[in-house]
Design goal:
heterodimer, A: 7-stranded mixed beta sheet, 4-stranded antiparallel beta sheet, B: mainly beta, 7-stranded mixed beta sheet
Chain lengths: 120, 112
């Protein structure tokens, strides 16, 4: 069974860049059957889809974040990454990495999530 | 963006009784390929979301058959035939028909 694990700094200063990595085990990110996605959830609030990447390198981002987001793949390490620039307190949230099935577009496996706090 | 509206936002249920959650989208979720990409997720306290149902009514691997999904177009429902203690948590609907994917506000299921 595939497992995903987020890692990265838990505290980021305002105006800096948030960087997270998602390590995938039990499956290859080079599989053409999946997208690799990031979703976030502010405390006590709903889920917000950030974006996704396919093995081809093709990406789709939420327009509300598009100017600040970059998602990339590292097939040699079987991991993918999120960068979010110019962060503010509004970017404080639990960040999840997840796998999206190509066929039915369901998000079938999620990481445990990592809390990122934006504060000086 | 497609707005997903769930009702109720909180649902107290007696163990062994049924529960139902509604999800309404601001526009049709029928994709140009004919599919409807509506999923339901369960989020237990302190846990990440877990996929229950995809494409309206397909149960994901390992999901008990007391969970079922139905609906079409803009109106969808998740039903639990007999609520068990482990079903406590927040339930989210999600659409993947149109970018950006969007989620409902979440419905908190709790035991009376």
């Amino acid at each position: 069974q595939v497992q995903l694990q987020e890692s990265g700094p838990g505290l980021v200063k305002p105006s800096q860049t948030l960087s997270l990595t998602c390590a995938v085990s039990g499956g290859s990110i080079s599989s053409g059957s999946y997208f690799w996605s990031w979703i976030r959830q502010p405390a006590g609030k709903g889920l917000e889809w950030i974006g996704r990447i396919y093995i081809s390198g093709s990406t789709d981002y939420n327009p509300s974040l598009k100017s600040r987001v970059t998602i990339s793949l590292d097939t040699s390490k079987n991991q993918f990454s999120l960068k979010l620039s110019s962060v503010t307190a509004a970017d404080t949230a639990v960040y999840y990495c997840a796998r999206t099935h190509l066929g039915a577009l369901e998000i079938d496996y999620w990481g445990q999530g990592t809390l990122v706090t934006v504060s000086s | 963006d497609i707005v997903m509206t769930q009702t109720p936002l909180s649902s107290p249920v007696t163990l062994g009784q049924p529960a139902s959650i509604s999800c309404r989208s601001s526009q049709s979720l029928v994709h140009s390929d004919g599919n409807t990409y509506l999923s339901w997720l369960q989020q237990r306290p302190g846990q990440p979301p877990r996929l229950l149902i995809y494409k309206i009514s397909n149960r994901f691997s390992g999901v008990p058959d007391r969970f079922s999904g139905s609906g079409a177009g803009t109106d969808f429902t998740l039903k639990i035939s007999r609520v068990e203690a482990e079903d406590v948590g927040v339930y989210h609907c999600m659409q993947a028909t149109q970018f950006p994917y969007t989620f409902g506000q979440g419905t908190k299921l709790e035991i009376k």
